[in-house]
Amino acid sequence: MSERTQTVPLAPGVARLLGGEAAALPGAGLPWLAERRARAAERFGALGLPHRRLEAWKYTDLPRALKDRDYRPARELEPVSLDAVPALTEEEPLARLTFVDGLYRPELSRTEALPEGVRLLTLAQALEREPALLEGRLGALTADDGGDDPQQALLALNAALIDDGLVLLVEAGVTVPGRIELVQLGGLAAEPVYHGPRHLVALGEGARATLVERIQGLGPTGSLANAVTEIRLAERASLTHLRLQEAADEAIELATTRVAQAAGSRYESFALTLGAALSRHELLVTLDGEEAEVALNGAYLLRGSQHGDTTSRIEHRVPNTRASETYKGALDDSARAVFQGMILVERDAQKTDGRMLNKTLLLSEKAEIDAKPELEIYADDVQCAHGATAGEIDSDALFYLRSRGLDERQARALLIEAFLAEAVETLSDESLREPLLERVRAWLSAAGERGRMEKESAA
Amino acid sequence: MTDSMLKIENLHAEVEGKEILKGIDLEIRPGEVHAIMGPNGSGKSTLSYVLSGREGYEITRGSVSFKGKDLLALEPEERAGEGLFLAFQYPVEIPGVPNTTFLREAVNAVREYRGEERYDALKFMKFVRAKLKELGMADEFLKRAVNVGFSGGEKKRNEVLQMACLDPSLAVLDETDSGLDIDALKAVAEGVNALRGPERSFLLITHYQRLLGYIVPDRVHVLSRGRIVETGGPELAEKLEAEGYAAYVGEPEAA
Ligand SMILES: Nc1ncnc2c1ncn2[C@@H]1O[C@H](COP(=O)(O)OP(=O)(O)OP(=O)(O)O)[C@@H](O)[C@H]1O
Ligand SMILES: [Mg+2]
């Protein structure tokens, strides 16, 4: 890609961010960091926002979404209580870091119950007190300050304004005895804010952990988040990563997750996408050691004019690795979803087992899915399959249920829930399934409410 | 005035512009069992779908009253709530929905419609287990997804289970006896007979006299080319078994 056109301007609201804010960011006193930020800002200035002429951004028009928006960094600590964030399961999380509009809130966080061998702190704390913890880790997977792929320009934007985030380091052999929650609340600021969280997770050999990311809009303000998460799993390490994205209606929620897996490690991700006006969740996983296994699953439920993009790339680099990916979604009104999935099998990666499936229910004629599952295979002894389907609710099933007394709304809800349950049931931790299904049901009953109100106002 | 359960008058219905029902008249009183027999394609299932309110059928003439109400003005779920039940000729598979969930939602939906309290999970399990026992069915039926992977006979028995749970006033059984082995047929017939009572009526659509040996009907109708061409007592079924439909399908098509 030699195209270096200057024709895609930075959205002014984003460009302004790059001027002069660095002094207020955490770790501003660290020369290496300042230098890194400056380099990344320069890179981002050269690359510009990813635009639709780039293959990976064909279906998501970020420049247009950002065109008339203006953002500033969050400064104010908005009053907020965790009461607005319902408990995920009856079992309390072992620890929790809470950020509001990107700002860390110790009074809403809890880290005291952590056992030996587990470090959980914020990126700002690490930068200020223990920068050595980050050495060789920050940006190691993403090369975000120096990369020249315009499709990955959001990494440079994140690096230029790197502020705060979660750092989770688990030593070899340690099992974290409970889930760790990363709560990111938004929508409360008086004016739209930008925040670029940077999260770092590193699990030592044989370590195990569960990380639950909860992104929740508590107010109406449409902020812009541009998160980058770097996850490194050593041999036989295992991470379950649940991501519930319930951002504010007007929010733009961008996230790039980069995972590197050593031999025998397992990464299981489930992403539920419900919120934001526009969201993109990009996952890049490399299977670098034999017997490494990845499961990327998720569900998206979108309505109104929401746009939700899931883009993933799994690289099988060595023999005997496994990947499975199942994403299911339901789209109502004129919502639009994008599913781009690439499974790449390198020449040496014999005996790869890779499966990818994307299924979407279109609940309205104006809803749209752009699905692009792809396999790129350079090895000859592999088992790979991919498929994508989109369709409407089965009218025979709908009538069958109605003939048994369920009204149309109940019948549709039951069928949609059953459809999505198939994705939710991929979660190996059964205790996390029910909270996900609850959210699916809440989404469905909100649809029912809306339908009822429309009927009443039409009458 | 409502000593009529179902009253169909001069019912005409079209599918995709093609007239299938061409003037049906039929009256069923509470407690009665009627049977409809007729050649393939004569409109039996169409009649059952029109009664239960399936989309895609245009009623061009006629009326149907059910317990004194204008049936055709009701949504399918309202018909179920009022007490109409259709056992499908081809029960629908619903992947991902456990049979228990399906039955519970259905039972509670009609209970709500009828002004009765919803069953909680526990009460419902008691209720449905009792029904299964009455019908000699295994609990295992409940766990599986609705009709998914059920054998033909199991699907039909699942229809009978739903009927027993929904406590209908009028049950239309569309070839519920087809594809059943002798034991299953007996079980289905016993299920129906157990539900018979002075307030409950049945409309049995069948090709076989055998079912009518177990469930003796009050009236037997012959449906041919969208019309009821003959009505008689149980002996009519025996006559049809012996002679076939030759006498009816030969009739000239009325313009
Ligand atoms: N959706 C449809 N489109 C076109 N024709 C239809 C449709 N549904 C039914 N028909 C036609 O209507 C006629 C009556 O069909 P119906 O299923 O009611 O017959 P039936 O009496 O139940 O037959 P069987 O004994 O085989 O079950 C048939 O000729 C059938 O092809
Ligand atoms: Mg039929």
Give a short overview.
Chain A is an alpha/beta fold and 459 residues long. In chain A, 21% of the residues lie in helices and 36% in strands. The radius of gyration of chain A is 22 Å and the shape is globular.
**Helix segment count of chain A?**
8
Mean pLDDT of chain B: 92
What share of residues of chain A is helical?
Answer: 10-25%
Low-confidence stretches of chain A: 1-7
- Anisotropy-based shape of chain B: globular
- Read across the widest sheet of chain B, the strand sequence of neighbours is 6-9-10-3-11-12
Report the β-strand fraction of chain A as a percent range.
Answer: 35-45%
Structural class of chain B: alpha/beta
**Cofactors and ligands:** adenosine-5'-triphosphate, magnesium ion
Strand content of chain B: 25-35%
**Which structural class matches the secondary elements of chain A?**
alpha/beta
> What is the annotated CATH architecture of chain B?
3-Layer(aba) Sandwich
**Percent of residues of chain B in helical segments?**
25-40%
The figure for the number of domains of chain A is 1
In N-to-C order, the SSE pattern of chain B is: EEEHEEHEEHHHEHEHEHEEHH
